[in-house]
Amino acid sequence: MTQALRHDSMRARNLGVVLGEVRKSGPISRAALAEITGLTKTTVSKMVGDLIDSGMVTESGAVRDGERGRPGTAVELSGERVAALGLEINVDYLSACVVDLTLRVRTRCAQAVDNRTASPVETMSHLQELAQKAVDEAQAQGLFIAGTTIAVPGPVDGGLIHAAPNLGWHDVRVPDLLDLPAEVDNEANLAALGELWFGSAPEDFLHVSGEIGIGAGLVVGGALFRGARGLAGELGHVVVTPDGPACRCGGRGCLEQYAGQDALLRAAGLAGAPGGVPGGVPELLERLRAGEPRPLEACERAGQALGVALTSAVHLMDPGTIVLGGVFAPLFEWIAEPARRTMTARLSTMRHTVPELTVSRLGGDAATLGAAGRVIHRVIADPYLWRRFASR
Amino acid sequence: MTQALRHDSMRARNLGVVLGEVRKSGPISRAALAEITGLTKTTVSKMVGDLIDSGMVTESGAVRDGERGRPGTAVELSGERVAALGLEINVDYLSACVVDLTLRVRTRCAQAVDNRTASPVETMSHLQELAQKAVDEAQAQGLFIAGTTIAVPGPVDGGLIHAAPNLGWHDVRVPDLLDLPAEVDNEANLAALGELWFGSAPEDFLHVSGEIGIGAGLVVGGALFRGARGLAGELGHVVVTPDGPACRCGGRGCLEQYAGQDALLRAAGLAGAPGGVPGGVPELLERLRAGEPRPLEACERAGQALGVALTSAVHLMDPGTIVLGGVFAPLFEWIAEPARRTMTARLSTMRHTVPELTVSRLGGDAATLGAAGRVIHRVIADPYLWRRFASR
């Protein structure tokens, strides 16, 4: 490694340290930034200047540097220039959102579409249109997109989806099908990160994404746990009953067969959403509120199965709390109680505390938000990423 | 924080960096240590001097510093002074070992004893005797014990065992019952670390400890995954059949009820080990080798149940490989095949590769070794720990 390259990577690292501190502690004076980061005031001032030029921070107002310091101007993140695009492909909808550097949501759009009956190329073509709409709206607000992440409902291995059984996709390389540079990550992982960054979850939790498939993302100490190959958190295929109904994953008796959206609608006597359009859950909610026995019984059983799978998950992964998201958010009132009862019966002898079940405030938006948030966090950690992009 | 304290903690950190580098790259010259750590040659020489004085490294032989350098002496870890004591309480045995700074095992002893019929005080009194024997043998070899860790068969929360169902222990504060300063950790966690440090496992694996209870420890990127409260890896209580036999943990149909040592011996028609003495597994092995149908059938069923629980574990935790240890090591030939078959049937549609099942070389010794190794790794990371201890 040459001396010049070393110097450059150290500069990049320091720029990330400064911007990270602005994010954490801003509005903050240059003098305080120098004090906290251990960099010289001259270096900090040069970097703040660069960050202002690239539209990532603004300087405004006046803050006092401690008791005796002179008043100085305050540096804070700017939401007016750099933004990120989050996209989501789910089984029965597509969605997009643009989030600025301050994590404020600037535009958001979704489209109900049955991706089970569409080819990957068709689905990606729809997603491209939705993405373009979001980008156009962001640009009209003066924003530039620093990067894109796509959330997909299946395990992702280096951009490749080996199998997303609920979509019927096999060996699909998602970024190759989109006409803009993008990274891909699992929907449940991104939903957990969305909950961490945009929701009200603490730093230790398991976020459960209830959709047609059920996934989960474990956050420990504010970091996502991914496992050895990035495939962790497939809660939907945890075995509830070993000789239960066959699952699209090739297994039997998986949680999805009891508590997935389709299974739940079927058990509730709703034919499933026609054409995959998400009309089924609102109708289920109406019938639950009306006190119809069959939907209530279906939620009771789904909740019990969820409780069994979560018991195994708690024993293996030891999450702090458990946040129920996706369709489990609107269904929380009916699903959570039997799940909690099942977990308490099975876990409370061995553990002082059984993890609490809470409801996600983000529901179905968590993954799309997490996808955009992931880009923002990477840009803040390495502002050169964006600068390189912007100078093109 | 005062300037002096800051300086001191930086010195402690640097000493750990130097010793860590000696461990990783030794034998190594002082000049190479300075080059790698970025510390001055003077600082490195002073630190190496201190480390020699405290018996943690030795200097010997001659190494050449690169092509043109002058030959210098080589610094390497010394196994002659600093050592660690590892202890294990299991349901039907106690064991102890002493490991030196180079991770060489210097003494090892075990005792079959039924801890289910003994009180915690009685068990700890037996352990104290065993520990004293090991310490005496180590001291006779000129070693000093820098620290002790105790492995226990249950989840540990800050030294407290809330419940170890297989021992019948509740709210036991283990270190309070031992007459030497010791830390406590879960047996399955320490067995995984033992496998990492003393076995032949790679950096990403799930180590399964098959004993009367079944635990697991997940290592990702060379680090143990502990979860939010340090209670992760309780594979033995993953639900195999939700309405299966009642388990001591308060649940039903847990893996231990199908593949734990007692359950397996019962299913094989062996009355269980009399008085808890581990005579049962050797007899089971004899009968398996003789081809007796009932023991073979018992292993087939236990292996299938293990395969179901591991399917859930793979979906949730995504381990690299799976290492079967404890009594599953001698039983590997009969247990692994049905487990592998079950996992392949359930996992191979969704995953490119199903994690390989391998056998632990350490078997029942893994936890005791991991307990001692944990102390050694802490001493190497912070050599002052030992120096403070030694100067008392």
TrEMBL record, chains A, B:
<feature type="domain" description="HTH marR-type">
    <location>
        <begin position="18"/>
        <end position="64"/>
    </location>
</feature>
<dbReference type="InterPro" id="IPR000835">
    <property type="entry name" value="HTH_MarR-typ"/>
</dbReference>
<protein>
    <submittedName>
        <fullName>ROK family transcriptional regulator</fullName>
    </submittedName>
</protein>
<dbReference type="InterPro" id="IPR036390">
    <property type="entry name" value="WH_DNA-bd_sf"/>
</dbReference>
<dbReference type="InterPro" id="IPR000600">
    <property type="entry name" value="ROK"/>
</dbReference>
<dbReference type="InterPro" id="IPR043129">
    <property type="entry name" value="ATPase_NBD"/>
</dbReference>
<dbReference type="Pfam" id="PF12802">
    <property type="entry name" value="MarR_2"/>
</dbReference>
<dbReference type="Pfam" id="PF00480">
    <property type="entry name" value="ROK"/>
</dbReference>
<dbReference type="InterPro" id="IPR036388">
    <property type="entry name" value="WH-like_DNA-bd_sf"/>
</dbReference>
<comment type="similarity">
    <text>Belongs to the ROK (NagC/XylR) family.</text>
</comment>
